[in-house]
Amino acid sequence: MRTFAASAFCIIWLAAAQARTTLIDDSGTLPYNAALAMHWQQLAPRGPASNVLVGTVQLRVRLNVSPWLRHAGRIYLVLPAQQPSGVRASWTTQGRLLPAQLTSGSRALVYSGPITTPFIEDVVQLTITVDARHMLQGYSVNFRFEMDEP
């Protein structure tokens, strides 16, 4: 029994180790409005929400997935660890990509399945939330898309 469990673990580990992660060309992604204007989540200065800044931007996402045409893959939106700390992002979509949320230093699945067209396109409503106590200046928030290939 112990040998079976160890073998099963090794098979799962090898399968995960064989997956390759590649950066996706998202140079066709454009914001509908250029700047992300942040505002206070709560105007009254009481409670933890009074320190939270929120901003929303609409993006036209265009991912060049032509290298994976006629293959299956898993696409992730990645928010690398960056300043300010504690950035949270959430988004809704028009249906081609999956809605999700993440925090800086992590990634979230936005697509899983066959790649049937050279581009995956969607309109994403992206909301950024950050604790204002971490804001020392204006910051650029950088995202990227990655493909996990089987």
Descriptive account of the structure:
The chain is mainly beta. The protein has a single domain, classed as Sandwich (Immunoglobulin-like), CATH 2.60.40. 11% of the residues lie in helices and 45% in strands. It is built from one helix and ten strands. The chain has one helix at 2-18, and strands spanning 20-23, 30-31, 38-40, 52-64, 72-79, 88-93, 100-103, 106-114, 119-131, 144-149. Strands 2, 3, 4, 6, 7 and 9 form a six-stranded antiparallel β-sheet that branches. It has a four-stranded antiparallel β-sheet with strand order 1-10-5-8, with no helix packed on it. A hairpin with a 6-residue loop joins strand 6 and strand 7. It is elongated. 15% of the residues are buried.
Beta-strand content: over 45%
Predict the CATH topology: Immunoglobulin-like
Domain unit count = 1
Mean pLDDT reading: 80
- Overall helicity: 10-25%
Structural class: mainly beta
Radius of gyration: 19 Å
Poorly predicted spans: 4-15
Termini gap: 29 Å
| CATH architecture name | Sandwich
Q: Can you tell me the CATH class? A: Mainly Beta
Helix tally equals 1
List the secondary-structure elements in sequence, H or E.
Answer: HEEEEEEEEEE
Keywords:
single chain, 150 residues, mainly beta, Immunoglobulin-like, 6-stranded antiparallel β-sheet, 10 strands
Give a concise summary.
By secondary structure, the chain is mainly beta.
Describe the secondary structure blueprint for this structure:
Layout: H1 2-18, E1 20-23, E2 30-31, E3 38-40, E4 52-64, E5 72-79, E6 88-93, E7 100-103, E8 106-114, E9 119-131, E10 144-149
Antiparallel strand pairs: 1-10, 2-4, 3-4, 4-9, 5-8, 5-10, 6-7, 6-9
